[in-house]
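Intended use. Records like the one below are meant for learning the mapping from a protein sequence to its folded structure. Do not use them to infer anything beyond what is encoded.
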Amino acid sequence: MLLNTVHHVAIIVSDYEKSREFYVEKLELPIIRENYREARDDYKLDLQAGDIELVEFGHAKEEKGLPVFNYSIAYDCHNREPLFYEDYPGSIVDVSQLQCMLDKAKAYGYKNTGFILDRGYFSRENIRYMDKYGYDFVIMVKGMKALVKDVIKEVRGTFEENRHYTIRKFGVNGTTVKRFVFPSDEKERYLHIYYSYHKAAAEKEQLEQRIDKLAAYFKKLEGQRVVPDKSYEKYFSLEYYHEGEDDSCFVCAIEKSSVIEEELRMCGYFCLITSADMTAKEALELYKSRDASEKLFKADKSFLGNKSMRVYSGEALEGKILVAFVSLILRNRMYTKLKDEEERLSKQPNFMNVPAAIRELEKIEMVRQADGIYRLDHAVTANQKTILKAFGIDANYVKRKTNEISNELNPKVKKVKIDGRKS
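Structure written out for the chain above:
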């Protein structure tokens, strides 16, 4: 039996060696990884998924133990349209790929551009690279980074309650300071520190729940001959009876109150770093403009089917990505037109999104009537008129197009046109 490609093989067997020989030796499926699982006293064998070269075990956002590839889209926030895309192997992290993406933007001829980047792209090398080629940037930084923590501690208590620093549009307070981001930095950057009461409440509750779960976990381990993972010692001091000896056992875990209290005080803060001088409000507005690209990416996964590619070769993968990107341009155009029109309306209807608008417009139908002529089944509705207006179309345009299509479909009219051309 000859198999060209196999997408996925899952085997649960009693004789592992015999099964392994069949799939690996006889079917010649390449091994990706083979692990012995001590807790289950069994082996887990991962075999190659098809012949897609981009697919590798990498850094998936939702880790499911499956091979992945990376896919990024450059989006023009000013004109609100996707510019280009790139795919690259799944084992490459985003922070390493940014410089290649910047080179592509330069090669495509994009000039006077700036980049709005998520926290995954923050690194000394990337900032230096953007400086080198004169790219402005707005980049999110994790609040727990040492640099950010120090600045937050410095400004904490000076702006959170002051209405002068309120950015009502986003429900936060913000302030700006100038700092060198790295010790070897050649120029100061603008660090915009924000505080959100809603974010603080959510993060505090999240932390408290985590502490409660850890405390309950340690309670179950008391008196047992176990050694909990060292990573838990961030929030707890772990006590042992005769630690390091043969009769050693776990006694209890004591909260590090000062550590937890300090982390609670850090809840609700986040930071943006910009290369250009701007206010905290301007920086946040720029960063929030990336929401459109986030929704674009979500649409690509949800509506266009790019979350799971379901292909079995590299050529099929590249083809599907290209078709999906072209579809994404069209869908994005519809989305922006609908949202612009929605903002002009006094009410916010529930049909001014792409799926709902398509469903509504699909109700505009032509039917063949008793005299053999195709006509609109019913008049254009108020909802349909609102949707059509977003695209610069009205009911009269629909009627004209209906007549044109009807004439094309009417055999008598077509015969007159043919006879007219012959004469």
